[in-house]
Design goal:
The protein has 411 residues and is α/β, with parallel strands linked by helices. It folds into 2 domains: 240 residues, Bira Bifunctional Protein, Domain 2 (BirA Bifunctional Protein, domain 2); 85 residues, Rossmann fold, CATH 3.40.50. The chain is built from 14 helices and 15 strands. It has an 8-stranded mixed β-sheet. Strands 13-12-14-15 form a 4-stranded mixed β-sheet, with helices on both faces. A 3-stranded antiparallel β-sheet has the order 2-4-3. α5 packs parallel to α9. It is elongated and about 95 Å long. It starts with 18 loop residues before the first helix and ends with a helix. The relative contact order is 0.12.
Length: 411
Amino acid sequence: MAKPQTPQPVRGTQDMFGEFEERFAHVVATFERVRRLYGFKGLQLPVIEPTAVFARSLGEATDVVSKEMYTFEDRGGDSITLRPEFTAGIARAYLTNGWQQYAPMKLSVHGPLFRYERPQKGRYRQFHQIDAEIIGAAEPQADVELLVMADQLLKELGIDEGVTLQLNTLGDAASRDAWRAALVEHFRAREGDLSEDSRDRLARNPLRILDSKDPRDRPAADSAPRMVLSPEAEDFYGAVKAGLDAAGVVYKENPFLVRGLDYYRHTAFEFVTDRLGAQGTVLGGGRYDGLIENLGGPATPAVGWAAGIERLAMLVEEPEPIVPDVAVAIEFVDAEIAGQKVVAALRRAGLSVEMFAHGSPRKRYDKAVKTNARIIMSISDMGVRWSGNDKALYARVGELVEPVAEELTRK
């Protein structure tokens, strides 16, 4: 009988272990700590949503909806989609749970997302993001708070060096609509010079031509008319910049930074690095005051950002190795039960412990020493002994271990 072939992982997924998993966990732990500093409440969302959540929020004609979503019909005949992003699901939860009564809400979430796209460095078909949103706040101070929080997160991760905050405004609805019409007229006059992708975007998403990376599009994009802001939009953008200046957050204005969907308003931003090749954005977001209306809710202001955990983890320095508080070597067979008592008592007291009770008894103590634990403990036929330079921990371990040591000595 032929040996069965081992199934291979799905393309665009990865198994995380060891150093990279430690980096990944460090990003999540840092995000959880920072979001609490800013009063953001944690949120857990379903991995699957009705397809309409994303089709209506992202737009049927976008690449994500038309090409990249994992969509299937379940056994009940409903169209279900694995979430490709968080914002639409958060907006759906806000409406279906009646959270309007709690507005403004500061929400955060992290977890896996799914898109069928070509895997490349830092980008996978199952990937993970951290996400922060403020729903129900129309003031520019909400945009500032999110940007300052993002800046602090990158600093606390130690990856802010070489990262630039790029900032732009998309104006209010009136400013944006007038600008969109002017862009369409400008690009139609130069349609023959545009790339195929940009000619397609001209009908669906003309603003995205502005940030095209195709050299054929740059002459038309660089000469495109700039947005003329209404006085209200000018004041909003000015307040965001003043808030960032007051908080000491450095930024660079980028008039070509856009969001293609019509529900985006005012602030758009990206934190960009040159350390990840062409895919340089490590965190991005903006204000999306029209999204909740698209999902059937009332007009609701909102702003948020998201960042890929894998991409942040690639920038994080190698984490310090995990060192246990106590390493316990069981140096003879009859001491294993005593060792279990010791280890259980130490762990219940909140100490991290590694126990070595397998392999050659003569080598177990050496293995314990190699962990560089703060306290090294030996349990042998001579009793329980421990050593370490941390006097406070040494005394605490003694109090916890002494009853077991006395019992073992009596035996």
